[in-house]
Specification:
By secondary structure, the protein is mainly α. The protein has 19 helices and no strands. It starts with 13 loop residues before the first helix and ends with a helix.
């Protein structure tokens, strides 16, 4: 039951792995989502709940995914099949691996569409097309891009091709090499934009929006949203971290690596949020949720001079580089599964995996044009994919992972997979999985099902 050697190689160093794992967590949603939620749900109270959830739920689950991936050294489906045999339990637990693969593929399908828009906006910003625009013009520019299937398809295709090329080059020459450049570039650009925003923007208003405690705005809903954001921000429940863990050496210090990844992700989000909201408030604008904040509000907040143009380009390059670093890790578990299932080359697996995901993404981009009226229960395909992955697939896979690792795996097997020498760390890790992590994910799923809102409405009667 010892941890076997990897037949696909290892990361070249712990630092290289941190760039890859940090890039997996630094998706486009982290640039604006965490800061926006802080402003909407009580400022520093939300941040405190989020950090608590990160260390009580996110950290033990992150370690769990890495340790299981390191033990399996396989694709997620075959790996869980081997794991269930070693644990002498039912093979039905491979649903965790299969569900994680589906989740990763679906998330990448709409990530690619949004990242393509980010690339298009960076080009438009460089040409001065986003300078000095008003609200009507900003919306017209976005709709002109999103509602044109040919333009959106071109950018979506270019992004998926870039993602495929990176994964096809392998673990070290592709994913590690790309992350070692994309993630530092994203940090450097974010620091530069933040410095500009603190000099030219309304930093005081941004800090007030982000940090002012408001218990009324926080409430029970803020606590649940903080739980969900802490889980989703680390790319958990998607098979990404398990796939990355399969290339970790047996002596890798999982707990220290997990803490550093959490800190990287949080610092990146807060710096980006401070920069974005300082610029928005200095222009007399108000934040907006979702895509509107990035593609409609933010372009209007930036000055029309040469410095403003450069900053606008930098902002959308941050979005593009961080999303590309995340996208290659989303494609990796799908490509790895196809490699093992079909016994084929990495290039073939990467191309076919990317092609299938690219095709699914077409349905998302068409939701802004010819499929915009095709709705089921009020949601189009683009919205359904986001709801299913973030609210259901990922938390459900995370919950099953908690139960399997803390309850189903025999103690001897889980100790070997955990690998840390300090016995108290093993007990702490297992205790966190059994109680705060599992309970927290049950709460997230109950919130997604509307049960918590229903109970709150009964309480207020």
């Amino acid at each position: 039951m010892s941890i076997r050697e990897s037949s696909y190689g290892y990361w070249s160093s712990s630092r290289a792995f941190l760039w890859v794992a940090g890039g997996a967590a630094m998706g486009i949603g982290n640039v604006a989502r965490l800061p926006y939620l802080m402003g909407e749900y009580g400022g520093v109270l939300f941040l405190a709940a989020y950090l608590l959830a990160l260390f009580a739920i996110g950290l033990p689950l992150l370690v769990t995914e890495w340790m299981l991936g390191r033990w399996m050294r396989d694709d997620l489906v075959n790996g869980f099949a081997r794991l269930t045999e070693a644990a002498k339990t039912h093979r039905a637990w491979i649903v965790i691996g299969a569900g994680s693969l589906i989740c990763a593929a679906l998330i990448l399908s709409f990530y690619s569409v949004i990242a393509g828009w980010s690339a298009a906006y960076a080009v438009r910003a460089a040409g001065g097309l986003l300078s000095g625009i008003n609200a009507e013009q900003a919306r017209a520019i976005f709709l002109h891009l999103a509602q044109d299937p040919e333009r959106s398809l071109t950018w979506h295709t270019l992004f998926m091709v870039a993602t495929c090329i990176v994964v096809a080059h392998g673990v070290r020459d592709g994913i590690e090499h790309a992350a070692g450049r994309l993630v530092p570039a994203a940090f450097i650009l974010t620091i530069a934009v933040c410095a500009y925003a603190m000099r030219r923007g309304d930093t005081q208003a941004a800090l007030s929006y982000l940090l002012t405690p408001d218990l009324h705005k926080f409430g029970w809903r803020g606590a649940v949203v903080a739980l969900h954001q802490a889980f989703f921000t680390l790319a958990l429940g998607m098979g990404v971290m398990m796939a990355l863990g399969s290339y970790l050496p047996a002596n890798a210090p999982l707990k220290r690596l997990a803490v550093v990844v959490i800190l990287m992700d949080t610092v990146f989000s807060l710096l980006a949020g401070l920069a974005i909201f300082a610029l928005i408030f200095s222009a007399g604008l108000q934040p907006a949720p979702g895509l509107a904040l990035i593609f409609e509000v933010l372009p209007r907040a930036l000055p029309a001079d040469a410095g403003g143009v450069l900053v606008t380009v930098a902002v959308f390059l941050v979005l593009l580089t961080s999303t590309l670093a995340s996208a290659v890790t989303l494609l990796e578990p799908v490509a790895r599964f196809l490699m093992d299932w079909q016994r084929t080359t990495r290039v073939f697996a990467a191309v076919w995996s990317a092609l299938v995901i690219w095709f699914i993404g077409i349905a998302s981009l068409l939701c802004f044009s010819i499929l915009q009226d095709a709705r089921l229960f009020g949601l189009n395909f683009f919205e359904w994919v986001q709801v299913l992955t973030s609210n259901w697939f990922a938390p459900a896979c995370g919950l099953l992972l908690c139960i399997f690792a803390a309850r189903i795996m025999p103690g001897e097997l889980s100790r070997v997979a955990f690998g840390e020498r300090d016995r108290w760390l093993y007990g702490l890790w297992r205790g966190l999985l059994r109680y705060p992590a599992r309970i927290g994910l049950i709460v997230v799923l109950a919130y997604s099902a509307g049960l918590l809102g229903w109970l709150a409405s009964l309480w207020s009667l």
